[in-house]
Design goal:
By secondary structure, the chain is α/β, with parallel strands linked by helices. The chain has three domains: about 100 residues, NAD(P)-binding Rossmann-like Domain (Rossmann fold, 3-Layer(aba) Sandwich), CATH 3.40.50.720; about 60 residues; about 160 residues, Tetrapyrrole methylase, N-terminal domain (Cobalt-precorrin-4 Transmethylase, domain 1), CATH 3.40.1010. The chain is built from twelve helices and 14 strands. The strands form three sheets. Strands 12-8-11-9-10-13-14 form a seven-stranded mixed beta sheet, with helices on both faces. A five-stranded parallel beta sheet has the order 3-2-1-4-5, with helices on both faces. A two-stranded antiparallel sheet has the order 6-7. The longest helix is centred in the middle third of the chain and has 39 residues.
């Protein structure tokens, strides 16, 4: 990843655009959606830029940008559509300490502006690091169709309700409240009565969730298929998205594990440590311990666990412990060596399995627990 995506706070901060033609106007149309203080330097500004300046929407300085003009500036755009002038303006801004973007010049820019789907305060940014702008636009068009225009209204109303929602305990119960609001009660109320009805629905929804007992622990035995996330079933994806704990075989691919919630605890049954072994009974005990604590547990196996002896033993243990479970079959994987229960070691890291070298987004941690400590 050559460009790290971030969202920069621009309220009341200075953003400078150097240039007065079509490229400058295109950037200004986007920047006008923010709360930034927009300043344009242009010796020969286009009529629309003059109009915006007359309306007080931007500040216009009718001369080329000079040293010191980009001081105390959050972002600087060089948009002259002239390589020499863009390079000069960028050098001025860099000397003043500003972050610089040169329009249509990825190589010499310090940051890039992605394609944006705007449902303020919900904003989706799409970038291809300059490799395929047409692809970014296609993705943007797809998302525009999928995200309702009322989504921003729901998010703004929900934001004002967050303090009251803290009456629900942190974790799954609060997540279920917000999921119910955004995907069920909120849109339904917006369709029936607008924003006023949404506010009323939030009050009723909170009362309902406060009086609802938390769901008991549950186990989903999920097949990861051959390792390609695109071959996962919809049910498998939903199970991973809802899981509090994911217990997986060492052969499960990092692309599959990426689909789990980042807050979930991820446990790898790893055969790399021969001095720490788990029997099937140990694995069953681990599953039951988390489920009895109220967690939604996913036991993730390669291929299809439907006819797996380990899955049969684990589901029988769930039945005996009166823990609910269900099976999510997967596409059978290509036959490959698999770990046996007696050779499987376990590593558990708080939050996620940080020891796995195939999950590069997390730094290693020393917070390990062995199978014996978990027993």
């Amino acid at each position: 990843m050559k460009h790290f995506p971030i969202f920069i706070a621009l309220t009341d901060r200075r953003v400078v655009v150097s240039g007065g033609g079509d490229a400058a106007i295109a950037k200004l149309r986007l920047l006008l959606k923010t709360d930034a203080k927009l300043v344009v330097y242009a010796a020969d500004p286009a009529p629309l830029i003059l109009q915006w300046a007359a309306q007080g929407i931007i500040t216009l300085v009718e001369r080329p940008v000079a040293q010191g003009d980009a001081s105390d500036t959050a972002l600087f755009y060089a948009a002259h559509e002239d390589d020499a002038e863009d390079a000069r303006a960028a050098a001025v801004a860099t000397g003043d300490g500003a972050l610089v973007n040169i329009v249509d010049n990825l190589h010499d820019s310090q940051f890039i502006t992605p394609a944006i789907v705007d449902r303020d305060p919900v904003v989706v940014a799409i970038g291809t690091q300059g490799a395929a702008p047409v692809l970014a636009r296609a993705i943007k068009a797809d998302l525009e169709e999928q995200l309702p225009v009322t989504l921003g209204h729901l998010a703004r109303i929900g934001q004002t309700f967050r303090k009251l929602a803290e009456a629900l305990p942190m974790g799954r119960k609060r997540r279920e409240f917000w999921a119910d609001y955004y995907f069920n009660a909120g849109p339904r109320a917006m369709d029936l009565g607008g924003e006023g009805a949404v506010q009323d629905s939030l009050d009723a929804l909170l009362a309902s969730h406060l009086n609802t007992e938390e769901r008991p622990g549950h186990v989903a035995f999920v097949g990861a298929g051959p390792g390609d996330p695109e071959l996962l079933t919809l049910k498998a994806r939903k199970a991973l998205d809802r899981a509090d704990v994911v217990i997986h075989d060492p052969l499960v691919t990092p692309e599959i594990l990426e689909l789990a919630r980042r807050e979930a605890t991820v446990i790898k049954l790893d055969k790399s440590e021969q001095d720490v072994t788990l029997s099937q009974d140990d694995i069953n005990a681990l599953i039951l311990r988390h489920a009895k604590a109220g967690a939604q547990v996913v036991r993730l196996s390669m291929g299809d666990p439907s006819h797996c002896a380990q899955m049969s033993a684990a589901s029988t243990a769930c039945d005996k412990a009166h823990i609910g479970w269900h099976l999510v079959p997967g596409i059978p994987a290509t036959p490959a060596p698999t770990a046996t229960p007696k050779s499987i070691g376990l590593r558990l890291v708080a939050g996620r399995d940080l020891d796995a070298p195939h999950i590069p987004r997390h730094a290693p941690s020393a917070d390990y627990k062995t199978a014996q400590e978990l027993a």
